[in-house]
TrEMBL record:
Protein name, as recorded: UDP-glycosyltransferase 83A1-like
Molecular-function GO terms, alphabetical: transferase activity
Source organism per UniProt: Gossypium australe
Keyword vocabulary terms for this entry: Transferase
Length: 106
């Protein structure tokens, strides 16, 4: 049977685990248990879809052969949250792009 995990969790940059973890044994155990469960799920899937691209994170995708980059997708419709996007949108290139022939810019 074909199985696939889709990792699309939204996270604000200030909620990254390594910025908010304390060093207590109970917190470290919770994080370890979470990572262990996550790894077991990945082992049972055929692919893990990732909101990134091979060009952005080649080393990461080399470490996780089941990861399939399908992005990056912008999270512009999430009511002002910075979900999935750490940088503000830069629209300064849109006028130039609009002046190019269809399909000529990749």
């Amino acid at each position: 049977m074909f199985q696939m995990s889709l990792i699309t969790a939204s996270i604000h940059p200030m909620n990254l685990p390594w910025l908010n973890i304390d060093e207590s044994p109970s917190t470290q155990k919770k994080l370890f248990d979470f990572l262990l469960r996550n790894n077991k799920v990945v082992e049972k899937t055929d692919w893990v879809l990732s909101n990134s691209s091979l060009e952005l994170e080649p080393q990461g995708f080399n470490l996780v052969p089941k990861a399939l980059p399908i992005g990056p997708f912008l999270a512009t419709n999430r009511l002002g949250n910075l979900s999935g996007n750490f940088w503000p949108e830069d629209s300064t290139c849109l006028q130039w792009l609009d002046q190019q022939s269809p399909g000529s810019v990749s």
